[in-house]
Amino acid sequence: MIDHLGIEVADYARSRAFYERVLATLGYGVVIEVTRDMTGGYEGCGFGPPGRPHFWVGKGDGEPGRGAHIAFTAGSRAQVDAFHAAALAAGALDNGAPGLRPHYHPHYYGAFAIDPDGHNIEAVCHLPADTDA
């Protein structure tokens, strides 16, 4: 159900260093880092086991400590599309239309919305288009 989650931080470099030190005790490290140029405004990194970032820390245009990012696993790209449409119809604000996000990996297909309480919610499918159900 939960694919990954993230928190907005006040000082990205400080928080990255903090979580690198703390999560290393559990065997987790930085799996991927993204820049503002790659994402259109967010810089951050994902921690987890090799090849699978589950916990993100970063800085975007939001206010630290206000809201969270929660990504839900979708079984197909059609489910991602349906999630986004349902969220907007239910009153969410668009935060990124369904589409590929190749800066994460070549098959990353996601859509983003801001829920009524200001949380950035996402549905993501990691499958290649030809294996989409």
From TrEMBL:
**Could you tell me which residue ranges the VOC domain spans?**
1-126
Please state the span of the N-terminal signal peptide per the UniProt entry: none
Q: Which Pfam families match?
A: Glyoxalase (PF00903)
Name this protein carries in UniProt? VOC family protein
InterPro entries with a match to the protein in the record = Glyas_Bleomycin-R_OHBP_Dase, Glyas_Fos-R_dOase_dom, VOC_core
